[in-house]
């Protein structure tokens, strides 16, 4: 904590309070208001916590104005180009890029923990055939605590490590089982000789009746998308994981809470909304008309996949995934895909139109990721499951950091009560 302070004065009473200021490596400073309630008998009011730092974190930094995203200090562009998902997972969990032996041991541990207890598969039989995949993922992830009692001692660092690696390892297997239940096909077991992303593709698309050939382009694209989604600071689902975890609940329950929060259409369902928008536009000839509708504040139409609550510049993830999107569509023979043509036309207009430029409504990662998932043959209802899978190492890293932080207390947001004043109960026959 620096010697920098801020003085807060109550103009009604003249009472002043000197508050310390905390400074991070990058980004805005934060005024430490822990003493505010005790000294002033007052709370701060910040709906959505848009100006509130709820924790200290060494994991991820975002500069929305500059379009910067760093994992443990490393630019996302470098990691997406040179790294792989498991190496990035190690980085998020432990703070540094691994040495060769460390990466081999970590990869081996993840590989050996991909299997799930056979009884866990029975959970899927309790879901209706067309149950939403996120409903299955949320429930089954939460149920893991019933099978792995040996790794839920949150006060034991070794137990936390084991749990973290189990969660990252088992998420593709659970996701694959949810997908197979959704499409009515037999479950596929993980294969230890495949990479993390290739294994996921195999569990999604292979069938007993025929050999499934994994496309290296598809494998690379999926791995890259997982990296881009791996962590994103204190977003809604990550904050939910931290809030749930602050109670001391087991980590599987905290991860399940994260899945539930991610399921919301304002969070994890954004790339699905992009495809629905493109379907609504229908044809490239209609783009100009819908651009004008997007500018009309009285028109309910919204241009999905443009702009971001955090990024006030071009989303750095979108720059990376745009080229990958073209590679995947070419690999899958969809380079003339009408939705891609629509997407490119929308991007072209939005980057030149004064309305969008002035408001900095640039394409974000969701704009292209939905197109990639569709090209890979993944239904829209499953997009958020893949988002959850990619975000898992970030959730786990944030949970581990929160548990080990001596300053962290149980989450307890305050409120301004605006309900009825105190009143007396009246028996029902006298009301």
UniProtKB/TrEMBL annotation:
Keywords: Transferase, Tricarboxylic acid cycle
Gene3D superfamilies listed in its UniProt record: 2.20.28.60, Citrate Synthase, domain 1 (1.10.580.10), Cytochrome P450-Terp, domain 2 (1.10.230.10)
Catalytic activity: oxaloacetate + acetyl-CoA + H2O = citrate + CoA + H(+)
PROSITE patterns, A to Z: CITRATE_SYNTHASE
Active site: 308, 366
One cellular component (GO) term of this entry: cytoplasm
Record has Signal as a keyword: no
GO biological process: tricarboxylic acid cycle
Superkingdom of origin organism: Bacteria
UniProt pathway: Carbohydrate metabolism; tricarboxylic acid cycle; isocitrate from oxaloacetate: step 1/2
GO molecular-function terms, A-Z: citrate synthase activity
Protein's UniProt keywords contain Phosphoprotein: no
Family: Belongs to the citrate synthase family.
Name under which the protein is recorded: Citrate synthase
Lineage: Bacteria, Pseudomonadati, Pseudomonadota, Gammaproteobacteria, Chromatiales
């Amino acid at each position: 904590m620096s010697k920098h302070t801020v003085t807060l004065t109550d103009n009604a009473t003249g009472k002043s309070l000197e508050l310390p200021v905390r400074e991070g490596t990058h980004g805005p400073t934060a005024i430490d208001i822990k003493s505010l309630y005790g000294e002033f008998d007052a709370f701060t009011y910040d709906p959505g916590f848009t100006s509130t730092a709820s924790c200290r974190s060494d994991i991820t930094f975002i500069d929305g104005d500059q379009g910067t995203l760093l994992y443990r200090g490393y630019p996302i562009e470098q990691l997406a180009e040179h790294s792989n998902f498991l190496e990035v997972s190690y980085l998020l969990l432990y703070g540094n890029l691994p040495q060769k032996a460390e990466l081999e041991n970590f990869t081996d541990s993840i590989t050996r923990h991909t299997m799930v207890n056979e009884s866990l598969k029975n959970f899927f039989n309790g879901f209706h055939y067309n149950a939403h995949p996120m409903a299955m993922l949320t429930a089954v992830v939460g149920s893991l605590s019933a099978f792995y009692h040996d790794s839920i001692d949150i006060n034991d660092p070794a137990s936390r490590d084991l749990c973290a690696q189990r969660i990252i390892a088992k998420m593709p297997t659970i996701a694959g089982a949810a997908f197979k239940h959704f499409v009515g096909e037999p479950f596929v077991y993980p294969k230890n000789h495949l990479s993390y992303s290739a294994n996921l593709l195999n569990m999604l698309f292979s069938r007993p009746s025929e050999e499934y050939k994994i496309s290296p382009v598809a494998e690379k694209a999926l791995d890259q998308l997982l990296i881009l989604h791996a962590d994103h600071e204190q977003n809604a689902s990550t904050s939910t994981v931290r809030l749930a975890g602050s109670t001391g609940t087991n980590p599987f329950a905290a991860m399940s809470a994260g899945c539930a929060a991610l399921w919301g259409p304002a969070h994890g369902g954004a790339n699905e909304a992009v495809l629905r928008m493109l379907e609504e536009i229908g044809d490239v000839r209609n783009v100009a008309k819908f651009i004008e509708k997007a500018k009309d504040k009285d028109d309910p139409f919204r241009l999905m996949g443009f702009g971001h609550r955090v990024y006030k510049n071009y989303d750095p993830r979108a720059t990376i995934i745009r080229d990958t999107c073209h590679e995947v569509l070419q690999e899958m023979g969809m380079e003339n895909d009408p939705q891609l043509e629509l997407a490119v036309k929308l991007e072209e207009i939005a980057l030149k139109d004064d309305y969008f430029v002035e408001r900095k409504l640039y394409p974000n990662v969701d704009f292209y990721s939905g197109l990639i998932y569709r090209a890979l043959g993944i239904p829209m209802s499953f997009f958020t499951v893949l988002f959850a899978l990619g975000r898992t190492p970030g959730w786990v890293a944030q949970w581990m950091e929160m548990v080990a932080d001596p300053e962290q207390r149980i989450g307890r947001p305050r409120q301004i009560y605006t309900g009825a004043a105190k009143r007396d109960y009246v028996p029902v026959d006298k009301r």
